[in-house]
Amino acid sequence: MARRKVSIVGAGNVGATAGQRIVDQELADVVLIDIIEGVPQGKALDLAESGPIEGYDCRISGTNNYRDTANSDIVVITAGIPRKPGMSRDDLLKTNYGIVKSVTEEVVKNSPNGIIIVVSNPLDAMVQTAFRVSRFPKQRVVGMAGVLDSARFRAFIAMELNVSVENIHAFVLGGHGDSMVPLPRYSTVAGIPITELLPKETIDRLAQRARDGGAEIVSYLKTSAWYAPASAIVEMVDAILNDRKKILPCAAYLEGEYGINGLYVGVPVKLGEKGVEQVIEINLTLEERAALHKSAAAVKELTDIIGV
Ligand code: APR
Question: What's the CA-to-centroid distance between 218 and ligand 1, angstroms?
């Protein structure tokens, strides 16, 4: 089988950790690229040197030149500035818009057939930027948010019930912001909806903690999270490279699904070798649907500001 190639733009906390996990799992060769000279080269070399001990046989290299990313199967965009205490993801809008736009132009030139996974925040507006600038089909531009948000929700449910995280599935829909929509009815422990296991007040508290999950980390670290974001990226990379047809919550371009048109919002999708192979429409209560639309409206406000 031909070697697969994943390029990661932004060799900072999230990008480098995602690169580490990809080679650890021997999913693909990895190219780290950044505007800062030395950082991608140094981190990649350090990771390459741990290969003989860890036993992975993937190549990992660092560069400042997009030519080295040529013909990537997947390009992950983490370039941008992260949050500092007191900042919302939306505060990053204008700076990261400029960065994601210029990065996408390079990606299109060098990997015209690749799939783009956007991670930079504010996520939904940034993935919409990459979609518009790249002019790629919607299947090949997807945003990482729901996998992370639902992993946080799953972790909190597992802690609350003192059960294995492996028993827990959860869905969080909507934009990757304060208005994201955890769906308790579709969140289960060994197949049992949490609505049958936990009182409403507890579920509301855990859902709110998932919503604030990013900010909780920022309050400790004074910058945003990277271990769980990197894990979420790698689950999506694996689903695509191995054509797993996995159902995962991701930011996808909607054209009428859920009554939303012309906007990236977090919904369940089927991820496989073609990228977003299907948007899955699940039944929502009136209340859930209203929350999803409210979240979409918050995304639309941002995309209107930057005109994408
Ligand atoms: N091209 C390439 N790399 C860039 C560019 C650019 N135009 N602009 C910035 N970068 C790089 C920075 O040099 C830095 O190394 O992006 C990297 C970002 O890394 P960190 O500052 O460590 O940020 P990180 O925590 O990884 O978060 C990156 O992901 O989760 C989101 O909100 C987060 O938007 C942020 C992004």
Answer: 15
